[in-house]
Amino acid sequence: MAFKEGFLWGGATAANQYEGAWNIGNKGVSSADCCTRGSRSEPRKVTYMTKEGEIKADVMFGLDAPEGAQFGCFEGYDYPSHEASDFYHHYKEDIALMAEMGFKTFRMSINWTRIYPLGYEEEPNEEGLKFYDDVFDECLKYGIKPLVTLSHYETPVGLTNKWGSWADARTIDCFARYVETVGNRYKGKVEYWLTFNEINCLEFGGWMAAGVASRDPQKIADAGKHQLLASAKAVQILHEIDENNKVGNMIGYGMIYPYTCNPKDVFQTWEKFKGSYFYCDVQARGYYPSYKLKEYEQKGIQFSLTKEEKELLKNGTVDFISFSYYMSNCTSTDPKVLADQGGNMMFGVKNPYLKASDWGWQIDPIGLRLSLNYMYDRYQKPLMVVENGLGAQDVLEANGEIHDSYRIDYLRDHIQAMHDAVSLDGVELWGFTPWGCIDLVSASTGEMHKRYGFVYVDYQDDGTGNGNRIRKDSFYWYKKVIASNGEDLK
């Protein structure tokens, strides 16, 4: 048997895409709450008021807001996170469905703004703390271990409006206060923690990952430094609270292939990989790698670490590494290739040997096996695949059934790849939590109809739907996979 006894089978969500109830229970406004609904052709936007009082919206990826902008939610805009899948009111029903599938773990995030609505208060919000008490108790009732992400694209907008969020070092102490609060409150209920979701996505733009409304390379570098220091501090805090706590990081990862064997393509592939490895290098090894320091020097980015900060990074390394894997991509230095081919989102050119999803994400299970090997060989720490899955337009049949054989095929092949990485390659893998185990809002587009789940949620992008939960064919298939500990993939 490839997967060890106690392997953590489950599923993953994020509060801002799943929870809803955005202004209930004294919750504050998060960075995700200000993001509008988009589509494959229309990018999501972020809303704010200029210092002159004008309401504006600008693109989420690459946001560069004017000085003095105050971020918030305004009438006339469609914000999908506000309702999402309404887990807030359906958590008992949803967790029961997870238990029916046999989940051993449930990856979810605590929304920082439920605990500290503005981010910088001295005292936490008891209503928010009580809500997560109830959620964790419900999980534990079924023997499901919570895997909790502390920051999953849910930065308090209060911090952005006050001093620029993670671009300012004062946010580190605010985050540490939050971590200490939830660590103490949920001691004995939560054993597995992740610090920042896909922390390396900060390189694509400051808003989603850090609530930073700027593309300025200096501010992005500062925000990255502050999050890395905060991550190290969170590891230390959680270890001090409970020696049984296991704290991991989380990065967005995908295999990158050179489009040709031209050495220029091969070298650019390595350059692209650095974007995945940098944050993980710091969190797993405890220091800034030389290639990043040289990059800062070449770009004129001011960077330094005090002796105390170096010690913090060194002593705050993670216990395990987790990552998302959906697809692979290719990179090329040939201008003609770049002009002729569209790739996966913003990432690269199409691989002629792979098929793609409806959203252009190329399906590559062997790439997952390679990723597991690359990550384990580089860090020699236990791994978790905490996001993986296929976003698709599921059809609810007249008889109430959803036949998603394409999702089963995708997951079967990727689980087989994990199986091979463990049994044939010797990778130490702790768990697997496919993304959006119950349908939720897409982070990249804000759509509801880009569905990932084993359970269909009857909410539509046009605002219709009753929120009913409906089991898909993949629900019963995944239940069988878990019951067999990953051996029965038929």
Automatic annotation (TrEMBL):
Q: Which UniProt keywords apply?
A: Glycosidase, Hydrolase
Ranges in a coiled coil: none
MF (Gene Ontology): beta-glucosidase activity
Q: Name one Pfam family in it.
A: Glyco_hydro_1
Assigned GO CC terms: cytosol
Entry-linked InterPro entries: GH (IPR017853), GH_1_N_CS (IPR033132), Glyco_hydro_1 (IPR001360)
SUPFAM superfamilies the record matches? (Trans)glycosidases (SSF51445)
Q: What GO terms describe the biological role, i.e. biological process, of this protein?
A: carbohydrate catabolic process
The UniProt family comment states: Belongs to the glycosyl hydrolase 1 family.
| Name assigned to this protein | Beta-glucosidase
